[in-house]
Amino acid sequence: MGAVLEGVHLAVIGGDDREIYLIPELQKKGAYILGLGLERSPLGNSIEHVRTFKELTERANALLLPMFGTDERGLIKAKYSNSPIFLNNEVLESIPFGVPLFIGWARPALKMATKILNIKLIEIANRDEVAILNSIPSAEGAIQMAMEATNITIHSSESFVLGLGRTGITLINMLKGIGAKVTAVARKPADLARALEMGVRVIDYPELEREISRAEIIFNTVPALILNKNILEKMSREVAIIDLASIPGGTDFEYAQLLGIKAQLAPGLPGIVAPKTAGKILAKIYPQVILEHLPPNLRSNSEGGVLK
Question: For residue 34, what is the DSSP state?
């Protein structure tokens, strides 16, 4: 089978070590890579480095932004860039009609702006095939952080996992394997039933205030303010909180600090603890997703139509 991205110009903008492993895999599929904010990366001259968004938008068939996306100012995470890169309205307005913009997850302001400008925005972080595989390095990294933040073993620890999404389920399985005493906290009856089937203790959110004092380690995966002032006040001051929810997390970090509770926000763990694995995961997913959103004339360059 021929290269599935033959003739496709992909703009890769910023990112971290995941992109270092993703880009060569995209090139193996036939993609031509234009890089912005990668000039200090170990990729060297294996890609074409451009200096401005204007050049990218004039030449690229698709734009790939980091999994982390942008901060509230539009600043793009770019570990290997010599200067800050911002995704602002001027940049968005320069994107030609039909050129898709791929991103891990987008802030509400970006979603609104792309909708107004009729830009095709594709978030990939919440796609099952990405999120489930990414939950493995996320869970491993969270457990590593908990080990560093406590003076007890994970084995026999009272470990609470808030939320039974993809990462929550993976965390429960790993914690059980290490020997932790796991309590799963969920709201949906189906999630509570699943946790019972997994053989762990189960409570729902109304019970959290009464039960939280038992916790020695708390892993939060819920992107809402679950660990608020009232809940924090009921905790042991020796508890460690590892919050894996997307920014700003589900913890009142300022109040936790005031109480002397260790609480860490840990977004983007796959790119921190296992960038090679995380990059390879993206490399498996991106080619087909990119093809799905390209114009028909570019899709026709793919020979065979089945990705290996």
Answer: E
Task: Find the mean pLDDT for residues 189-201.
Answer: 94
Structure tokens at 20: 């270092």
pTM of the model: 0.82
Q: What are phi and psi of 13, to 5 degrees?
A: -115, 115
CA distance 32 to 278: 21
d(CA 21, CA 141): 19
Question: Is 3's pLDDT higher than 90?
Answer: no
Provide the sign of the torsion angle of the four alpha carbons 67, 71, 75, 78, taken in this order.
Answer: negative
The three-class DSSP label of residue 152 is: coil
How many C-beta atoms surround the C-beta of residue 128 within 10 A?
Answer: 8
Edge-first strand listing for the sheet containing 181-186: 201-204, 181-186, 158-162, 217-220, 240-243, 262-265
Q: Which residues pair with 181 in a beta bridge?
A: 158
Residues 6+ apart with CB under 8 A from 190: none
DSSP classification of residue 25: H
Q: Is the dihedral of CA 20, 24, 27, 32 positive or negative?
A: positive
Which tens digit of pLDDT belongs to each residue from 81-117?
Answer: 999 999 999 999 999 999 999 999 898 999 999 999 9
Q: Which domains occur in the chain, in start order?
A: 9-120+293-299 (3.40.50.720), 129-270 (3.40.50.720)
pLDDT tens digits, residue range 262-303?
A: 999 997 788 888 999 999 999 999 999 999 988 766 655 554
